[in-house]
Design goal:
Largest sheet of chain A: none
Largest sheet of chain B: 7 strands, mixed
CATH superfamily of the largest domain in chain B: Periplasmic binding protein-like II
Shape of chain A: globular
Number of strands of chain A: 0
Number of strands of chain B: 10
CATH topology of chain A: MetI-like fold
Shape of chain B: globular
CATH superfamily of chain A: MetI-like
Order of helices and strands of chain A: HHHHHHHHHHH
Oligomer: heterodimer
Number of helices of chain B: 15
CATH architecture of the largest domain in chain B: 3-Layer(aba) Sandwich
Radius of gyration of chain A: 22 Å
Strand content of chain A: under 5%
Distance between the termini of chain B: 69 Å
Helix content of chain A: over 70%
Chain lengths: ~260, ~350
């Protein structure tokens, strides 16, 4: 029986469509040409020049600080939310809770950005790293909760009962039984939250205040007056970080061999 | 859990650091990326013993949207002049206190005649750039700095005009000797016919690829922004830039202080510092745009002074104009532009 070649070609086409632009960007970041007007030889000068851009490093520091902080808090809140949803999923309150947690996944980012900014402005909260942190936690919680919830759905509740039967208190049960079993889900959710936070532009743009420019905002504003190959080099580094986090998250969340 | 606490503490500390600084006042500037020479900013910091924090935006519109939605904390902005008009109309800008900015006497009076805010009531001009014609010296014979170049048969198919309604209709209007802010229908129709003639002669209307196309020799002559041309010229020294003798479009970014500014006095001081002739000349040399500061012109290095991509001849500048927001008359331009783009 001959299998159709069509799926292969569609796959190849889609991969080219997705990854060719990224490949071009990465290749160009090693191009000696200042303007990308054709290949003028391999060069690391753009990466070297990055070292002398203090504002870029400040933006990178802001991005990392927020990503780490937002990940940490959203892991705690997201995991707790997932537990509540899993344990009491049938109740009316939890169905409402589920809708609330699900909302940030479907609400357009620009809407979320503007509404958060208006909320901060109305309550007199000064914009800055703190508001970016809060905004990031808001959407990261949902992603963590969904990832952990998926893990909990495969969870065998009988194991918990067995532990309790054998005399473990709820604290010990949680630490020695439940946590190790759902840890991969939590880790995957954390890495997902980290990648989303470090890349986010739209929401961050609105809630950023004086002195809290993050890396994506900096890159975007460099397009008008900045040096294009410098942006390529910076984006390549950011891509590397993101891809590493995504691959790690997949490794961790895939079923144990 | 235990790992999270130090992270949160670090975050809180960082927020606290950015929020404090009561001893040293902090000037918060919201601007385009790389729009001030870093050394100038550092000097201002030590002269005034303050801190300067620069945040960046990518377009006038996104900056406006953000401020309009309630973002505050910025003391100085650098929008383009059409956006300044809009923000002023909405009451978002503070009037400039002339007493705090003595250096404003150096601002070029010839420029102010064409400016949108000619009396510097709520804005001070910062940098001017202009559109013009760039070409390859070795490939274009008998170059004349005129919009008429776009009618030259020997360059057919190797030229581009900007894909920008106001810029390109403006070029046609200037070629005919009209104002590029005209709302006269007959003048606009005459400009349309001129551009239709050029259209048959050019390769395409193009806003981005013209830079690389010119550098690689695909195009021989292009209508473009001086800032872009300066960048590609570093790659291909054969590229030359000229301002058409009929005049061209100027675009200006202004220094403005939003009503929400906390450090308005410091913002005034920074404006004053930027218009110190020596500082203005240094900034012009660094950015490749022209700070319209009359006393600074004499301090520019001769190479810049003679570069039409940076220093616009005063006579030509008198013929050039800033593109203004025409409100209702915009519809007329849209119609003319549609007729140009859709003609067979």
């Amino acid at each position: 029986m001959r299998r159709s070649r069509l799926p292969i070609w569609i796959t190849v086409g889609a991969m080219v469509f997705f990854y060719l632009p990224i490949a071009i960007l990465v290749v160009n970041s090693f191009n000696a040409s200042r303007f990308g007007t054709g290949w003028q030889g391999f060069s690391l000068r753009w990466y070297a020049q990055l070292l002398h851009e203090p504002e870029i490093w400040l933006a990178a520091r802001n991005s990392l600080l927020i990503a780490v902080g937002a990940t940490a808090l959203s892991v705690v809140l997201g995991t707790a939310a997932a537990f509540a949803l899993h344990r009491f999923g049938r109740s009316r309150l939890q169905r409402f809770h589920y809708a609330l947690v699900y909302m940030p996944l479907v609400v357009p980012e620009i809407l979320m950005g503007i509404s958060l900014l208006m909320a901060f402005a109305a309550t007199g909260v000064g914009l800055g790293l703190g508001t970016i942190f809060l905004a990031h936690v808001t959407f990261c919680v949902s992603f963590v909760a969904m990832t952990v919830l998926a893990r909990l759905q495969d969870f065998d509740d009988a194991v918990v009962e067995a532990a309790r039967d054998l005399g473990a208190g709820w604290r010990v049960t949680f630490r020695r039984v439940v946590l190790p079993m759902i840890a991969p889900g939590i880790a995957a959710g954390a890495l997902l939250a980290f990648t989303l936070s470090i890349d986010d532009f739209v929401i961050t743009f609105f809630v950023a205040g004086p002195g809290s420019t993050t890396l994506p905002i900096r890159i975007y504003s460099m397009i008008k007056f900045g040096s294009p190959p410098l942006i390529n080099a910076l984006s390549s580094i950011l891509l590397l970080v993101t891809f590493t986090a995504v691959i790690l998250s997949q490794r961790i969340s895939s079923p144990r061999r | 859990m235990r790992k999270i606490v130090p992270v949160l503490a670090a975050l809180a500390a960082a927020t606290a650091v950015s929020a404090c600084g009561k001893a040293d006042p902090t000037l918060h500037i919201y601007t385009w990326a790389d729009y001030f020479k870093p050394d100038i900013v550092r000097r201002f910091e030590s002269v005034r013993s303050c801190r300067v924090v620069i945040d960046t935006f990518d377009s006038n519109e996104s900056m406006y949207a953000k401020l309009k939605a309630g973002a505050s904390g910025y003391d100085l902005l650098t929008p383009s002049s059409y956006m300044v008009s809009l923000m002023h109309a909405q009451g978002m800008l503070r009037p400039i206190d002339r007493a705090l900015v003595p250096n404003l006497v150096h601002v070029d009076p010839e420029y102010l005649k064409t400016a949108v805010d000619g009396t510097m009531d709520h804005s001070v001009p910062y940098m001017i750039s202009n559109t013009g014609i760039a070409y390859l010296r070795s490939r274009v014979a008998d170059f004349v700095p005129s919009w008429a170049m776009f009618g030259r048969a020997d360059l057919k198919g190797r030229m581009t005009l900007l894909n920008d309604m106001r810029e390109t209709i403006g070029a046609g209007l200037k070629f005919l000797g009209y104002s590029l802010n005209t709302t006269n229908e007959r003048e606009l129709e005459a400009a349309r016919d001129v551009i239709l003639g050029w259209r048959a002669n050019i390769a395409k209307f193009e806003n981005e690829q013209y830079k690389t196309g010119l550098a690689s020799g695909e195009f021989l002559l292009v209508h473009g922004y001086s800032g872009d041309i300066l960048q590609v010229r570093k790659e291909n020294p054969d590229i030359a830039f000229a301002l058409p003798l009929e005049g061209a479009a100027l675009s200006v970014d202004d220094l403005v202080i939003p009503v929400t500014a906390k450090e308005a006095a410091l913002a005034h001081a920074f404006i004053d510092f930027l218009h110190d002739p020596a500082v203005a000349a240094e900034n012009t040399a660094f950015l490749g745009y022209l700070c319209p500061n009359l006393e600074s012109y004499g301090l520019l290095p001769p190479a810049l002074r003679n570069d039409p991509a940076v220093f616009i001849d005063p006579e030509l500048r008198a013929k050039s104009e800033v593109i203004k927001d025409l409100e209702a008359a915009n519809a007329l331009y849209v119609r003319i532009w549609d007729e140009i783009k859709s003609a067979k």
